[in-house]
Amino acid sequence: MDDQVNPDQSSPQVPPAGPGERPARGRPAASLIHRNAGGSAEPESLIFDVRGLRVFYGSFQAVSDATLPIREHEITALIGPSGCGKTTVLRCFNRMNDLIEGARVEGTIRYHGVDIYGEKVDPVEVRRRIGMVFQKPNPFPKSIYDNIAFGPRIAGYKGDMDDLVQESLTRAALWDEVKDKLRQPAYALSGGQQQRLCIARAIATSPDVLLMDEPCSSLDPIATLRIEELMIQLKRDYSIVIVTHNMQQAARVSDRTAFFTVDVKEAGMRTGRLVEFDTTDVIFTNPRQKQTEDYITGRFG
Amino acid sequence: MTDDSRPPSEIRHRFEAELDGIKRSAVALGSLVLENAGRLSEALLENRLDLAQQAIDADEQVDRAYVDLERRIFKVIALQQPVAGDLRLLISVIRIVHEIERSGDLVVNCAKGILRQQGFRLASQLRGLLARLCREALDQFARGIDSVASLDPEAGLRLDREDDTVDSLVGEFYVLLASEAEGMHVDTAIELSRVGRYMERIADHAVNIGEHVAFAVTGIFPRHGEIDEQ
């Protein structure tokens, strides 16, 4: 699934919703729901409690039965070969798969205890709370300032926009580099700066989770390191789930790592499967599963 | 897995061959020290000063092989960025070769003592006990090297228990040496007590080697657990 063209590349990363002031970060998910849907309480530290997740595209099963408790204020890395379903799983966390025709999600994903696929949940609000950063930096063809202000403006943000822009850019470690050229087009920035701009744009709508789909795959090692450092700073305020093909990156930045593989069934059906989920330390020093060890040590195929 | 995700296996095979080569070289280094220790043992018990000198001379080869092996391991870590079992093996071998090299130095120290004393003329009881001590210590060292060759964590951990035999023989040796020291020159008695100490240390290095093997295979380092509990 990783190779699929992202249908949302050109649209806002975090479709803004909800009227008025910026909501506080890290608030429980009650605002996701139009009316109280009665989500059961979950352990405080879990941002996502994923149980028995199965994803289908029509009759094709992309992911089988993944159970994955994702903790708050941690960086969780999803790794595995192409087609293992890691990007598909990532997209389930903010209901991006809803945008793909024929996609069906079974099992539960509780976000702060609320089933995000529950009937009363507003998927647009889910995507505002749970922001996404894509593989390729995708700024809008607007100024740096307007890239940040776009989402909050649509959401009817009534605070001081200049402050919000500065705060978002500062959090994304970009302010010092762009503060004197906020009205310049975003496309004038380097790739690494564009990606940090996209992170700033995601932050501007006050999510408490950032999903990152190979955010450094188009960047050089220096820009990559800056994003990695930024991720580590950001986890104080946000929870981060990152899909990466770069195992050193997963090892460097993440607290926990989930390894997915792909099972080839009859008629060539390929279904992603979660093999092992543990602290990154265990995964890269002493994984429990041979399949994990074979993959991370390069003994695949 | 898609077909293009199957990498050409050449690079990986080369890496695996290098890991295997490093392990074999560590075993070869251990065999070299063991062979030298055998020479020393004969020099000690048979008053063979020529063998003592050979043991000293052969250490240069041990040192060179040790340095080569350390460089190889360092290079593999830098270039291949190994993780999990591969990383544990390399970290363990780098520790193991250090234990082996130190054991080689102890053999040399002992050989130098023989030359200083122009050989030891030992009463038969003391000689018999020293012969047993050397045999047990060198057997222990050989088992340590075997555990590297087989990467058998059980065999590695058994060495700690087996070390009691060497420790009690060293104790017996000291007691007997003390009782016979009156008839000896003081230098000889000191030199002999050092020999006992060197043999004990060689056996201790074998225990450490066994622990490194256990870590390489299981990811658990026995001594870390002991320290954590304290």
Relevant terms:
heterodimer; A: 301 residues; alpha/beta; Rossmann fold; 10-stranded mixed β-sheet; 10 helices; disordered N terminus; B: 230 residues; mainly alpha; Methane Monooxygenase Hydroxylase, Chain G, domain 1; 7 helices; elongated
Structural summary, described in words:
The complex is a heterodimer of chains A (301) and B (230). Chain A has 301 residues and is of the alpha/beta class. Chain A has a single domain, classed as Rossmann fold (3-Layer(aba) Sandwich), CATH 3.40.50.300. Chain A is built from ten helices and ten strands. Chain A has helices at 86-92, 123-129, 144-154, 161-171, 175-178, 191-204, 221-234, 247-253, 280-285, 290-296; strands at residues 46-57, 60-71, 75-79, 103-111, 114-115, 130-133, 209-213, 239-243, 256-264, 270-279. In chain A, strands 5-4-1-2-10-9-3-8-7-6 form a ten-stranded mixed β-sheet, sandwiched between helices. In chain A, helix 3 packs parallel to helix 6 (191-204) and helix 6 (191-204) packs parallel to helix 7. Mean pLDDT of chain A is 86; it is low at 1-28 and 34-43. Chain B is mainly alpha-helical. Chain B has one domain (10-224): Phosphate transport system protein phou homolog 2, domain 2 (Methane Monooxygenase Hydroxylase, Chain G, domain 1, Up-down Bundle), CATH 1.20.58. Chain B has helices spanning 10-46, 49-80, 84-116, 124-150, 153-180, 186-218, 222-229. Mean pLDDT of chain B is 92; it is low at 1-5. The A-B interface holds A 81-83, 247-248, 251, 261-262, 264, 270, 284-287, 292-293, 296-301 and B 1-2, 5-7, 9, 12, 15-16, 81-88, 219.
CATH architecture of chain A: 3-Layer(aba) Sandwich
Q: State the fourth-level CATH superfamily of chain A.
A: P-loop containing nucleotide triphosphate hydrolases
Following the backbone from N to C, one meets helices and strands of chain B in this order, namely: HHHHHHH
CATH class (first level) name of chain A: Alpha Beta
Alpha-carbon Rg of chain A, integer:
19 Å
Largest interface: A-B, 22 and 18 residues
Give the termini separation of chain A: 19 Å
Number of helices of chain A: 10
Largest sheet of chain A: 10 strands, mixed
- Radius of gyration of chain B from CA coordinates: 20 Å
